[in-house]
Each structure stands twice: as structure tokens, then as C-alpha cells.
Design brief:
Layout lengths: L27 H4 L4 H18 L30 H74 L8 H23 L2 E3 L12 E8 L7 E7 L2 E3 L2 E4 L1 E7 L2
Helix pairs in contact: 3-4
């Protein structure tokens, strides 16, 4: 006997199959509205509300203000990589280096010139002093014989002064004044007499013309000055002509 299908009709669930083109059931799309437009509408409202009250940040754009430093002050903006200001700065630094090198060269040149001038001044002073000494020595060498003759005249007439008249004595006094005045002029020029008598014989200052054995003096002692010698500083103008004692 075949099964009774009437009893199972209440348990069946009707299933509707939709065609891909929607031709068999045109009302299906209208009965089930899509939720995508509603989602887009909600997102637009959220962005619109953000535009009205909140600040929107663009991650691709650089920050309008530099980030603060540790002490709270804003960091300095980085310098531009090019431009007329940078070119002017580079040119200024190059000019500064050039001027510093030029100043150094000028200072070195000035130091060398000062050293050369100082050496020149010292050389001129030495030459001037040498010229002065040479001229004075030449003049003194010509005046010393006159001084010697005046001295000899005074020594010769000293023994006759007592027997001579007053006029002759006045004449000898005048000669003595001239002798002293000439000696003062030579002394003012730096010409100094050599002390010889009683000194040890010095071959650099004395010239022995006579030797005499003596027990009263040590050997090589000057016992008499025949002609006085003179010096000008360290320069010998004329040696002293002396008599030297020797051992018997």
C-alpha cells in the first residue's frame, strides 16, 4: 500500500529559487533592500561631524609647527638646502678665510720688516760709533804731539822759572793753561791717558824702550814714563813709551 503523503504536508518548507538575472522573480529585489547605502550614509555623517567640531590631521602633509624640544621650547626649523641666503653665506665664509690669510701674511711681513729695521738700526749705530771713534782717534793722534811738546816746554822751563823775570813766569803760566785746556778737550772726546809708572809691564799698552837693572822694583815693572800713551775706549791710540826694571 503506498504511503500517505497527506500527513506530511504540514512539515514541508517552501523554498524559492532566485534566478541570477532576476527575471523570474522581479519583486525579490524590491522586497529585500540592500544595506550598503545605509552604511555609506552613516560614514558620511560621521565624517561630516568630524569636519564640524574636530581637527583633521593629514598624515602625508608635513607638520605646520616644529616638534617641541625637551625644555618645552619649539625646535628650530631646518635651514633650506639652497637659495640666495645659503650662497651668500658660503661666499661670506670664503671671503672671511681669504681676509684671515691675508692678515696673517701682513703680520708676518710686518714682523720681518720690524726685525730687519731693528738689525739695520743696530748696524747703523755700530757703524756710527766706529766712525766716531775712528775720526776722534785720527784727530787725537794729530793733537797728541802738540800736547807732548807743551809738556816738554813746561818741564824744561820749570828749572829756570826762579831766575826768570815776572813776564816770563806769566808766559809759562799761559802755556800751562793751554796744556791743561787741550788735555780737557781730549778728555771730553773720550781720549784717556794710560797709567804706566809703577804698573806691571803690559805689552798691549806699553812699549819698553829702555830697561834698567834695579833692586828697588820688581822685574818687569815700569819705573819711568817717557812718552804718555792714550786710549779711546777699548781702542789704543798710542802706547806708552816706558823704562822697565829688570833683575840684576
Amino acid at each position: 500500500m503506498p504511503p500517505d503523503n497527506k500527513g506530511n504536508s504540514s512539515n514541508r518548507i517552501p523554498v524559492n529559487f532566485l534566478d541570477s538575472d532576476g527575471e523570474n522573480n522581479p519583486d525579490a529585489g524590491a522586497e529585500t533592500p540592500s544595506s550598503e547605502p545605509e552604511f555609506k550614509h552613516d560614514m558620511d555623517e560621521e565624517f561630516n561631524s568630524a569636519d564640524e567640531g574636530d581637527e583633521v590631521f593629514d598624515l602625508d602633509s608635513p607638520p605646520s609647527h616644529p616638534s617641541p624640544q625637551a625644555d618645552g621650547t619649539p625646535a628650530e626649523a631646518p635651514p633650506a638646502s639652497g637659495g640666495p641666503e645659503v650662497a651668500e653665506l658660503v661666499a661670506t665664509r670664503a671671503e672671511l678665510k681669504r681676509l684671515e690669510a691675508e692678515v696673517k701674511d701682513l703680520r708676518d711681513s710686518l714682523a720681518r720688516r720690524q726685525a730687519d729695521f731693528e738689525n739695520y738700526r743696530k748696524r747703523v749705530d755700530r757703524e756710527r760709533a766706529a766712525t766716531y771713534d775712528r775720526v776722534v782717534a785720527d784727530i787725537a793722534s794729530k793733537l797728541l804731539p802738540v800736547l807732548d811738546n807743551l809738556k816738554r816746554a813746561l818741564e824744561t822751563e820749570a828749572s829756570l822759572e826762579a831766575s826768570e823775570s815776572d813776564e816770563f813766569r806769566h808766559f809759562l803760566s799761559g802755556v800751562d793753561l793751554i796744556y791743561k785746556q787741550l788735555g780737557g778737550v781730549l778728555d771730553a772726546l773720550g781720549v784717556k791717558p794710560i797709567v804706566a809708572e809703577g804698573e806691571q809691564f803690559n805689552p798691549h799698552l806699553h812699549e819698553a824702550v829702555v830697561t834698567e837693572p834695579s833692586d828697588d822694583h820688581e822685574p818687569d815693572t815700569v819705573i819711568q814714563e817717557i812718552v804718555r800713551g792714550f786710549t779711546l775706549g777699548d781702542k789704543l791710540i798710542r802706547p806708552s813709551l816706558v823704562k822697565v826694571a829688570i833683575k840684576k
